[in-house]
Amino acid sequence: xxxxxxxxxxxxxxxxxxxxxxxxxxxxxxxxxxxxxxxxxxxxxxxxxxxxxxxxxxxxxxxxxxxxxxxxxxxxxxxxxxxxxxxxxxxxxxxxxxxxxxxxxxxxxxxxxxxxxxxxxxxxxxxxxxxxxxxxxxxxxxxxxxxxxxxxxxxxxxxxxxxxxxxxxxxxxxxxxxxxxxxxxxxxxxxxxxxxxxxxxxxxxxxxxxxxxxxxxxxxxxxxxxxxxxxxxxxxxxxxxxxxxxxxxxxxxxxxxxxxxxxxxxxxxxxxxxxxxxxxxxxxxxxxxxxxxxxxxxxxxxxxxxxxxxxxxxxxxxxxxxxxxxxxxxxxxxxxxxxxxxxxxxxxxxxxxxxxxxxxxxxxxxxxxxxxxxxxxxxxxxxxxxxxxxxxxxxxxxxxxxxxxxx
Length: 407
Description:
This protein has helices spanning 8-11, 20-42, 239-246; strands spanning 67-71, 81-85, 88-92, 100-103, 108-112, 120-124, 127-131, 137-140, 147-153, 156-161, 170-175, 181-185, 187-192, 199-213, 216-227, 234-237, 251-257, 263-269, 276-281, 286-291, 296-303, 312-318, 335-340, 347-352, 361-364, 371-375, 378-383, 386-390, 397-400. With 407 residues, the protein is mainly beta.
């Protein structure tokens, strides 16, 4: 029987009959909604992915038309280049003048210094050597230690082991003044912050991979460690995060620390697959991802130090086909130099094409204004939009471009 609007149950002001099922459902829904809102507010949300530096969408490396000039001024860079040439360590001004021998019978592949006293350290065929201001040398570290890489600042040195016949993580911290050595558990490659007591190296898991050296396999680590002298290194980028960012099976192939030690550049990838450079902050957060052109692999990375600002330069070289395991100086292939600025995330190609054919040495100038690129054809000085050749030919492999000359 239906009801009219005037029926008592419609207009009766007495409390409605209890409906426990309905009230329970409403309470449950309200509690669930409140819980979701609280969880959304309290539980940290994942950070947005880091920006990715975009390269031209082409199979070839970027081509750049640059003005070519001859360098006549010796004042560029503030100091002479250190180059390895014909079994000697030499220094020469950026314009090709005032070449002199720093040390005889020294085939250096890496150098640190010189310091204010004119002393520097060099790595020659796995031997870490102290070079005095008068050119005399003495060995640093144990006689049975064979180095595969060298980094440092001032008297502090970090040498990673050549893995042939040695544990891959048997690194050494060395004092260039006293010669004292202390073990540190990390492997090659290594890096050191120019103005900070911070170093970086490679950790496990380790894998032996083909495609780095001709006719053999080479061990490569899957994580990045950072530390300070006197402290145990900590993991900055573990294998899971590295591979999530750079692809399955990615390994560490190069490291570079910003001058203040707050940023780490990591070249990561795997032979036969794309390579990229990851920029990671000291707290482990990824700041940027820089993909490289197809078939190109980083040969060098370095940070500039210019009046409080810094720029990362990456020299990427063609490693396709037979070029994959060729020595840099024998590699008849091109490449490019990319500069990236953390301040605004901007990037640009500084040089590409012919200047990068068989390029085998790279270094930032001490004033952070130019990059030196060496090859068997000579040394070129790269600035934005301009590539300088030297008025007097400079031959040899560029190792460093320090602020001061060795006395």
